[in-house]
Every structure is written in structure tokens, then in C-alpha cells.
Amino acid sequence: MDAHTLIKRPVITEKTTKLMEDNKYCFIVDPRANKTQIKQAIEEIFKVKVKAVNTFNSLGKVKRMGKYEGRRPSWKRAIVTLEGGSRIEFFEGV
């Protein structure tokens, strides 16, 4: 899998902004990706050294429109911890 298709987009919320102080960054990733692939993709794209990767799957919410019921898409999120002096410059403007 290509690194740019593996990492879909960053997650920027109040909680993830707080995590950036601890050198942790959050990304939405491909659901089929494993931790090793995510680590290699982050290192390739951002040229940083990754210390650890934590992942979890989130189930999409069930939504109703009248009598019809559907489900929003599920996604996989990865929290990437970087080595000591590493920073991702992409997030610095946030």
C-alpha cells in the first residue's frame, strides 16, 4: 500500500491539540493498515522518527431519517508518538 493512501487525514480537535504537547499526533488511516505500515508511512511522509503507534477502530453511528435507518461509515484512528526532538511541521500552524 502507498504511504499517502494509507494515511487519509489528520484529526485536529481540542483533545488531539492537547496531545501534540506530548509529541503525539492523531490520523485517520486505512482500516486495513497495521501498526508497522502506519509507522513506516508516517516516517516516509513527514521524515520523522516514530516511537510508538496506538490504533483503534470506531464504529459509525446509527442515524435515522424518518422510518429509515442507516449507518455512518466506520473508521480507524492512529495515535502516533514521536521520538524526543521530532516534530511534524504540518501541525505547527494549528
UniProtKB/TrEMBL annotation:
PANTHER family: 60S RIBOSOMAL PROTEIN L23A (PTHR11620)
Organism of origin: Hydrogenispora ethanolica
One Pfam match: Ribosomal_L23
Keyword Oxidoreductase: no
Annotated family: Belongs to the universal ribosomal protein uL23 family.
Descriptive protein name: Large ribosomal subunit protein uL23
Top-rank taxon, per record: Bacteria
Subunit structure: Part of the 50S ribosomal subunit. Contacts protein L29, and trigger factor when it is bound to the ribosome.
GO MF, any single term: rRNA binding
Functional summary from the UniProt entry: One of the early assembly proteins it binds 23S rRNA. One of the proteins that surrounds the polypeptide exit tunnel on the outside of the ribosome. Forms the main docking site for trigger factor binding to the ribosome.
InterPro entries from the UniProt entry: Nucleotide-bd_a/b_plait_sf (IPR012677), Ribosomal_uL23-like (IPR013025), Ribosomal_uL23/eL15/eS24_sf (IPR012678), Ribosomal_uL23_CS (IPR001014)
Keywords from the named record: Ribonucleoprotein, Ribosomal protein, RNA-binding, rRNA-binding
GO CC list: ribonucleoprotein complex; ribosome
Keyword Ribonucleoprotein: yes
Entry's Gene Ontology BP terms: translation
PROSITE patterns xrefs: RIBOSOMAL_L23
